[in-house]
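Sanity check record (used in CI):
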Amino acid sequence: MRRYNLKVLGISETHWTQVGQQRPASGELLLHSGHEEENAPHTQGVALMLYKQAQNALIGWESHGPRIIKASFKTKKEGISMNIIQCYLPTNDYNEDANDRFYDRLQSIVEKCPTKDLTILMGDFNAKFGMGNTGYEYIMGRQGLGERNKNGERFAITSTCHEVLGHKKHHHKEWITVDTLGKIQERRNKKAAINTSRTRAEKAKAQAEYTEVNKQVKRSIRTDKRKYVEDLATT
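Expected output for Endo/exonuclease/phosphatase domain-containing protein:
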């Protein structure tokens, strides 16, 4: 950190469990977040290492599981804070539901950051964006490498919706289609069926049906969001 004059260093894949902070002999402050379950595996894990100036500016920090950690800092501008969110995203071939849960949580964390603040997302997103930025000119240039993968697409959509739509959740209804709303209602019905099941067999069947409908809802929402962002780029 001293060599490159870094005040804040984000770390992914620490493989540390639990949540806490440490102070190495060199004087930096290390904030870390990992699995908290008993006998949890030493996998994933994220951390932020703060040099002296960042320590003095630290307002507070939050653990959001083994893949996300957030810290807030004072800035020279009165009333404006800087939020740094360090992430470690699952790979493309990881469980799709895990990817969805990650982005749902990330979206929720970002939406809670005041719009007047400076919010920085950084870390290992296991994403490729490619050089094409049509529809995403607001949030990326044309200097990416390779071809955009699914993680790159998800991150671009998340960033664009945050940039263009802002934080207000009622905006989301503008781009959710009637078909998706129907699937959401069906998911509610399947959820209710689980709670009213009288036998184990009925409950297992209802749970399986709910899981399948839930996947359909998430796919449909992603499709709606992608189409809405593309339409924004052409208007």
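Residues 164-172 have pLDDT under 50 and may be disordered. If this sentence no longer matches the regenerated tokens, the check is flagged for review.
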